[in-house]
RNA sequence: GGCGCCGUACCCAAGUGGUUAAGGGGGCAGUCUGCAAAACUGUGAUUCAGCGGUUCGAAUCCGCUCGGCGCCUCCA
């Protein structure tokens, strides 16, 4: 498998430190608000990486942290007149709820900064002991000028950054580029005891401490959004290497942004959609909407930006409808139970090989989806001649290759074929819920009778009534009728 | 100002040195159907922002220009 490494700026063969074992650390969310589509993309990209490595037979340890002490949390708590603990509890819960909705697997470890204070303090002390940090009034800063490798990940010369630093510089710092490892406590803020007085950790140090704690000083993959390359990941490397005296993460994996009208989706710009509103205000069942979002996000390569909009979401829905439509036809008994042919088995074997080639090539999910659609067309062409066993094999192939992507796992009869849309106006109506399978069968019976008597006006009105409640009818060649929601 | 990414058909999007430039959406036409729906068939870029260069050969490598975006400050 090849994976693009930000550290070298190249696609490289992935070789883990310990054969057949992989350690992954991903920078998680700061829990101060609902998570939006950008967070969903991050979670889904690394969920796919993790699952595919497992598909490839690796034993994966996946660590994704919660940042639960931070300026934004403190501000949120102050704004709402509640405690930081309440804010943290509320949004950790919201995050886990949304990840479950999206079918994102729970990481093996979900460490929290506040539960690793001793690791953090020990790491800061190690950096101080080596002379690469200094203390000012209860704060501790990392001295960037003494770290020769600084700037390697983000490929920017330290001198250039200093020249045009737009940050309001804390004049007490020895150098504008130096960053804080420990912040002295301010009144009313969460604080912990340390050798430098009460205070709280700087943002970057928590990830260094937690990754080293759970995966060791040197581990395989460290990931996050590309906005974290500088300064967050650059600083993590500096701190960790200084503290442990060993190499830090070996492969750095960064994904692109979700954009709205081509502009980065961000809390500060206010141009974001939360996972919650997308799932709850959709007129499709939750698992269906979630799979559409996944398909949409995976239809662009993970390193590129992906523009979130109704039209491409609708396109993803239509593409998935085609696949689940095939699954329904495959679930029906064959017209003639012919003997399985070897050429068809070869088709499935070739597909799986192509799937693996595409995934091995830096997770080329757009190509995987194209191959899935190609297979769908191929199966549709010969569908009627397939044996019971071959039909089962097709469904099984989609299920197996779809598993690392989190796609094609739903039962075809629970899929919803209605148009996907958002907003209150298009929400599921109460009337839809009243359509029991029995009632639908009854309607289909009545329509069949009408058709038999050539009473097409009656037959069509029944079909329209069902359609208005989201029930779609399809007449088969043998005279029977298939329905779907 | 520094660093970096992107520009492929109506829309989305793979391909990044070599037979006919994947796939999806949408459009149009046909088969099927009482009519539909679904499925299937046919129909799409002599061309990859523009201009130069390297090469036997470039969407793919190099240079420049134009256009869009991101990071340098919290950020997935």
Q: What fraction of the residues are assigned to beta strands by DSSP?
A: 5-15%
Taking Cα atoms only, what radius of gyration do you get, to the nearest Å? Answer: 27 Å
Which overall shape is indicated by the principal axes computed on the Cα atoms? elongated
**Alpha carbon gap, first and last residue:** 40 Å
Number of H/I helices: 16
Stretches where pLDDT is under 50 for at least 5 consecutive residues are: none
Quick overview of this protein structure:
The protein is an alpha/beta fold and 485 residues long. It has helices at residues 37-55, 71-80, 84-101, 117-129, 158-163, 203-215, 229-244, 275-280, 286-298, 310-331, 342-360, 365-382, 388-402, 430-433, 437-452, 456-468; strands at residues 2-5, 10-13, 21-26, 59-64, 133-136, 139-142, 179-184, 199-201, 221-225, 251-255, 258-260, 263-264, 306-307, 472-475, 481-484.
Describe this protein's structure.
The chain has about 475 residues and is α/β, with parallel strands linked by helices. The chain is built from 16 helices and 15 strands. Strands 4-3-9-10 form a four-stranded parallel β-sheet, sandwiched between helices. Strand 3 (about 20-25), helix 1 (about 35-55) and strand 4 form a beta-alpha-beta unit. Helix 15 (about 435-450) runs antiparallel to helix 16 (about 455-470). The longest helix has 22 residues, at about 310-330. The two termini are about 40 Å apart. The mean pLDDT is about 90. It binds one RNA strand of 76 nucleotides through helix 1, helix 5, helix 7, strand 12 and strand 13.
